[in-house]
Structures are given as structure tokens and as C-alpha cells.
Amino acid sequence: MAAATRIAATPFKAPVAVPLVAALLLLGPSAAGHAQDSPADGIPGAAPAGSPAGSPTGSLDGAQPESPPEDEAGPAGIRYDVEITGVEDGSLRSTLNDASTLVGLQNDPPPSLIGLERRAETDRDRLQVALRSAGYYDAQVDIRIDEPAAATASAGGNAPPAKVTITVTPGPLYHIKTVTVRGTGGSTLPGDVATDDLGLAPGSPAVAQRVLNAESELISRLAKRGYAFAKVTDREVVVDHSDDTMDVTFTVDPGPLIRYGTTRIEGLEGIDEALVRGRLPWKEGQVYNPLDTDRAREDIAALQVFDTVRVRLADKPGPDGETPVIVTVTERKPRYIGGGVTFSTDEGLGGHAYWGNRNLFGGAEHLRVGVEVGRVAGSSGGTSSTGNDLPDLRFSVNYRTPDFLALKQSLVVNFAVVNDQPPAYSRVATELTVKLERPLTDRLAISYGVTAERGRVETEEATYQTAFIGVPLGVGWNGTDNLLNPTSGQRASLEVTPWFPFGGDTKSPFTSILFNGSTYHDLGNEGRYVAAARVGVGSILGTSLTDIPPNHRFYAGGGGSVRGYGFQKAGPLNRFDDPIGGRSLFEIGAELRIKVTETIGVVPFVDAGTVFDSAYPDFSEPLRVGAGLGLRYYTGFGPLRLDVGVPLNPSSGDARWQLYLSLGQAF
């Protein structure tokens, strides 16, 4: 029989309950820190701070393979194959593979049999810790090395690798028996600090990480009751091998009840302090709640004039529990410039440039002046013979002031001079909009105001002198996790705008209604496979299609609509092959966003839609369907999008394919 090295580890047996030390100590220390929120940089859309300061991380210390010592690394060593047997559970097998040095360093063979044996000895302890942390406290680990094969493998050449077999006998899975929470020195804990919903219900698996999570939850519960400096002074975990159970006891020092003291704001330079104080949701003397400081951090960051925002209590509680609050901010540079370029085969080359000041008068007033140019080359802009031979031009001035008349309500003023040359018409106009925007909840917002426009719109068949007053009303819901690259959640918007003529050729008022909704579902982990779908429905009520100026009609087709078709071209055309537009709109789309690497992704997609002469989609026109494949390059400010689409049921004049290049996902 061939000789073999055997390294075995058997569980520690005792007739009575014994303290569990190794697994939980390696998993993390007891939560000796405060219950108040950890200071965190605030940015727009940033998530609230995570675990309380000093709480356990819950990471499996030693579970990841370590780099080999220098004298054990190198290509000329003992090659070996390693196999873990005796484990049927896939999750447990994955845990053991992650913890195993033999598995993790297999491509870095040791220089000698002694080095291989040393690696196996390390695995014995590491695997036992991993098994205990998973709830297996009576496990056995046996590691065998085929020595003759090891000697042959050390000779190099084409010799077969040594065989290392790790035999694991997990034994029974241990379960929670009791969970006890007590105050320091036998004192009574404040409030209703129940052991329910801690993830440690009697009969549940005795997994070490769940114990650590329960400890963090206890501290969080006390913090929400105002005990910001609560800490776990002792965590006693007892494993009873006689009935395969675990008893857990937490000893907690709640500390004093904390109330808000004076608030100090640090780091302000050009921003009015009153603006920041107006976004603090507490009053002096009120009982502390970490949700208040989270909310303050988010609301201050939403002003978009700070690079970082930190909101925290002082390090020590004040007299009678009144504790100062410290708000620390770092201001962004007030002035900025920027620009960008877009391209698609249907709209040609375009670009934009802008200058802005995000703190015009000291109250986070935002002024932005911009110029946009479109359809510079390679587009089908303008109708067949009308137009002014100029590209699309838009000069705009946008102004926003926060907390206008009410907290979080913004006044928005937009002025623009435009020269539009899309396929359907040619338009020169001026526009002015004044509106209020107000969030109702974290996800729901409304807007309302007045808009005015005056201009001239030309088609092959008519010329419209237009002058309208509109009353735009909007409501938006955003439950997604990211604005430019959502991976989960839903978003929806509804816009209703009654339009009233005050001169010009059009005499009939009308009302435009547009709904857009989209949903996103993460099929894997961390957004590597995301299924996305959208729907858009529009309707114009109050007058006939011919009485509606072409710039107010609905159109389908293009990079943000039905890909595979030219801009405005996924709908009925007139005798000049120019888009007619419609009084109603219907669009649907779906795509699968696949991340190949951290920065590269591919996106197969299909879109469908068109417009109708009727006030509601009656499907008298066939839906135009397009499909294609996209490429994404993920950056820190959002994905760069390159889509190539083909029309599946094209009209006679449609191109065979379309290309779209822009920033952000299609929807």
C-alpha cells in the first residue's frame, strides 16, 4: 500500500456545554462601539451609513487564501490536485473552497513535501473554523497526501501531480436554543428591546454570522430609541454537544438617553448657514434618532453644492444626555464648464457646451447657460424642401433656486431660443417656462407651472404661426437604485399639459397627456444580468390632428424610442416621405443588460411602437418593430451607449440599420 501523510482534525468533545471561542472570535469582536451612525461622506443619492461604529464586520478572518511565503512560491514546486469530499451542500462546499489554502494556492505549488504538509496543517484549522462558523461544531477534517505521487511531482517534467484529498465529515447542523439580552450588572434595559426578529429564533441554524448580525441589530434598536452610545459589553456563546444546540447571551450597556444639543456647522465658505440649518429635521432637546441624521445628510447633499457631508454626534454624551451635533461639509467649486458629443445615423453629429454657477447668490441658486447643436452632418433633418439650411440650434438659460417659499420646493425658470430641423418640420421659436418642483416623498415628486412659446413651424403642406400658453402638470415616481444605470426598481412619469392659443394661426385649445414607465430586475448578483422593460402611452385631446402644430404632435422612432428606425420615422409618412405625427402614441421596449466585465457590457434589445391619428391608440397603424445589439462602456458617471438596430418590418424608405451613440442607458 502506498504511503500517505494524514493530517486529521477531530472536534473537541465535552459532556457539558462549552464556550465557543475560535469561530466567533475569528468572525469579529463584540460590538464595543457607539450606536450612533458612522460619519459618512454625503453625495446626491448616497445611501445611509452602514453598521454603527465599532460594530462587527462579520467577515471570516482567515477565510481567504493568504499569499504564500516567498520561500514557498515559484513555478518549480510540488504540483498537486486537491479534492474536498464528504460535503453535499453546495453552499457549504463553496465556503470550504474559499477558506482552503490548498485550493486557493493550488497554482503556487510549494517547493517541497514539507511545504505541502505545512499548507495542509494550515487548512486543518481554517476548515474547522469555517465549519464552526457555518453551524457545524462536531465536524471532522481528514487531509491525506499521496507521498510517492508528491515525490514524483517534485521531479517536474510530465510527471502527474500529487493527489491531496480533504475528507470532511460535517456532522449535525447545530441550532439555536435560547437567546437572552440583559443589562450590564443586571440592570433593566430601556424600551422594548425584544429578541424577536433578530434572526436567532429558537430552532434556527447556529450560524456565527447570524449572531453578529443580531448584535448589530440590538445596537441599532437602542439607537433608534435614543441610546446613541449603547454597546454590547459581553457576548457569551455556549455550544452544547449533548443536544447539538447553542445558547446566546448579550450583555448590553445602553448608556444615557441622548437628546440633541447645539448644532455646529463646519466647512462653510460661500453657502449661507441658514440654508443648511433649514434642512436639519430636529430641534434642540429632541430625543436622538439616527434616521434624523441620515435624513439631514441626504437633504443637505441634495443641494448639490457640497462634495462631502458628514453629520454626527460629539464623541462623548453631554450633561443630562444633551449632546452637540457636528455637521461638516466640503463645498464644491461654484463655477463649472462642460460639454459633450452625440452621434446617430438618423440625427447625425451633435454636441453641447455649457457654463454654470451652482451658488450664484450664496443660497445654492443654480444658473446654467448652454448651447446645443444637432444634425450637423449625416442627418435627414428638415422636411423635404422647407427649412433654413441650418443645423439644430438651441440656446438656453436655466435658473433654479432651492427652498423657494417652502422647504425642498424649488423655483425653476427656463428660457430658450430654438431652431429645430427634425424630419417632420422646421421650427424657429422662443420658449419661457416658470414652474415649481416639490418632492412629496423620497420617491414621489410633483411639478406645476406656466409655459409660453411663440414661433413659426413649417411643413411641406402648411405653415403655422404659433403662440401658446401652457400649464404643465407633472408627477414622477423613481424607485430605482441609479439614475443613469438602474439595476432594480421602477420609475414612472405622467405629464399633463393643457395648451391655450393666444394668437397665431391655431385657435383650438388642446391637452397633451404622456405616460412613461419602466421596470428593472437584477437576474444575478451586483447587476451583472439586468432585465429591463418600458412602456410609453400618449394622447392629445380637444382638437383634430391638422389643428395641432407639428411640434406638439407625437412621433415614434430613434434612439430613445423605437431603435432600428430613423428619428420620427416609426409612423405614418406623407406623400413627401416626411413624418406626419399623431394624436396618440404607443411604445414598448425590452432589453437584457449583460455585464461581460466590470467596464464592458452587451445589450440585446427589441422595441416596438408607432403613432395614431386617433386621440387614443387604436392600433389602426401597424406597430413598427426594431431589434438589435448594444455595447456599453461603464464609467464612474454612467454608461456610454452604442446601439445598432435594424427595422424588422420597415417601410420602403427605411434604412437597413441605425446606429446610436450617447451617455446613459436607453431607458
UniProtKB/TrEMBL annotation:
Signal peptide feature range: 1-35
Protein name: Outer membrane protein assembly factor
Transmembrane residue ranges: none
Native source organism of the sequence: Azospirillum ramasamyi
Main location: membrane
Pfam family, one: Omp85
Domain of life: Bacteria
Lineage, broadest ranks: Bacteria, Pseudomonadati, Pseudomonadota, Alphaproteobacteria, Rhodospirillales
Chain positions covered by the region annotation Disordered: 31-76
Subcellular location: Membrane
